[in-house]
Amino acid sequence: MFADPTCVNVERAISDVRAGRPVLVQAGGDMVLAIAVEGLDQRMADALADVTDGCARLLLTSARLRYLGLDRTAPGSVPMPVIDLDRLGHLALRINGRIDAPVGPVSYLDEAALELAQLSLVLPAMLAIPLAPPCTALQNLLSVPAEEVHAYRRRRIEHLRIVSRAPVPLDGAYETEFVVFRGGEGLRDQVAILVKAPNPAGAVDVRIHSACLTGDLFGSLKCECGDQLRHTVKQMAEGEGGILLYLDQEGRGNGIGNKMQSQGYDTYDADEALGFEADHRSFDFAAVMLRQLGVETVRVLTNNPSKIAALREAGLAVVSERRVLGRPTAENVRYLASKRDRAGHKIDFDLLAVHAPLND
Ligand SMILES: Nc1nc2c(ncn2[C@@H]2O[C@H](COP(=O)(O)OP(=O)(O)OP(=O)(O)O)[C@@H](O)[C@H]2O)c(=O)[nH]1
Ligand SMILES: [Zn+2]
After folding, report:
1. 160-355 sits in which CATH class?
2. Model ipTM?
3. Which is deepest, 153, 275, 287, 329, by most CB within 10 Å?
4. The CATH homologous superfamily of the domain defined by 5-154
5. How crowded is residue 6: how many other Cβ atoms within 10 Å of its Cβ?
């Protein structure tokens, strides 16, 4: 009845985690109740207190543990004998948080719980309560095998497929077609914009662009995304055409809610404070989209070496790369410098100033 039954429970679990409901993560005979910390309220904390037996643990990513002052490269768990919302908030969410107890390792189940948080686009901090099955008080909760959570991203990629396509003439790029893909991670729609019907048998100009509501749509001065987006389409229209993949990866894949929490700080420090690794976007499904469009050889338009590496890793031939420049503004200069210094993006400030594409 279902195309891939192993994805069904994970997708239901994603929905429950986003709604602030607990889910059961299980493997073999072991089970933990997992719930996102960001949605916990006193009523839920009281309900959970009835099943904890004092052995609840707070699961935190290595990024958050580093922010709390530990030298960590792996996630960890902090004992939580009493479900104290204030302490949870302090450890998991607050800017002035500091670690207050020994940090233990995480189990296979815990890792799946943290992965569920990331798939659900909530802050990656989970409360985990080990349970001894059968647990009759929790019969209504969704139960998901840890193995299915771990395999989810890979499995979902196999289901990416084109669901619709139509010509959409753009201002300055008349011959343009939008091709919509569905079935991938989180069932979110991903869009390929084909400018001037490029011949897929040759080398095709390709830009992979992660969504940025603030920059792409509203022209935020804090980043260069809107400039890059419009400049690329214009260049493709004036040249031999190309493909722009517009990926639903708002906030470097952390979601718009988490991105807004990070405004005002260094962009990577802010993500680490919230528990996100510097940039954990994956671009493997972009390669699958290109392949479904018949493309095997690409000229990539980006400053981001990870995008090039991801396409090569997926087996596409990257024959050249070109920088994509935006306007430097007083508001984005720190953001651009961070991308250059912290993430190795190839951004040359002198060139930025010279090109200033939208001031043409
Ligand atoms: N987490 C977070 N994400 C941000 C912030 N500002 C912009 N972004 C996101 O950063 C991403 C930028 O993605 P891309 O346009 O693909 O660019 P890139 O990875 O910088 O690489 P290029 O191809 O060189 O442009 C988008 O998803 C934006 O929403 C921020 O302050 N915090
Ligand atoms: Zn942006």
Report:
1. alpha beta
2. 0.98
3. 275
4. DHBP synthase (3.90.870.10)
5. 16
